[in-house]
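Re: Re: ligand-bound prediction request (bumping)

Still looking for help on this. To restate: I need the protein modeled with fe (ii) ion bound, output as structure tokens. Inputs repeated here so nobody has to scroll up.
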Amino acid sequence: MGRKSREIAGVDLKELIKALDRAYCDEWLAFYAYWYMAHTVSGRGYEDMGEFLSKIAKDELEHAQEVAERIVELGGLPTNRPANLEKNGNAPYPGVMKKLYDYDEIIKLVEDAEAGAIDVYNKIAKMTFGKDHDTYQLVTHILGEEIAHEEMMENLEEK
Ligand SMILES: [Fe+2]
Ligand SMILES: [Fe+2]
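Reply:
Sorry for the wait, this slipped through. Here it is.
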């Protein structure tokens, strides 16, 4: 991002970069938890659950990439050590299911993490609305996917 575009952005850049970095850390932690669960889940129907989790994990990794690139464009640097991901994120590591076949717990873990992500991107969208159009576009795109993730998991709940 050039000097002029930073100037017209009209947002507190430091604050925005920090908010984006927190989201970046959340994405990696979600990716890790989902990926882990995708490859360890067992029990009846585990292949379907594994596939769901893999798909969502892939999206989170993509979000991490998109957010990292935006941070750099804004002149910042995303968190560069795994050990700091939890410290710099919005929420602690989502964690994984205690029993490999406990689908209810998996669904709950993912729904909680997605609800958190929706809040986070909603806040960044408000922060950038009408000011930093590129970041706004990116976070609303990601927000849409987090909403879809939450819905996917809600649809798996036993009715
Ligand atoms: Fe995400
Ligand atoms: Fe998500």
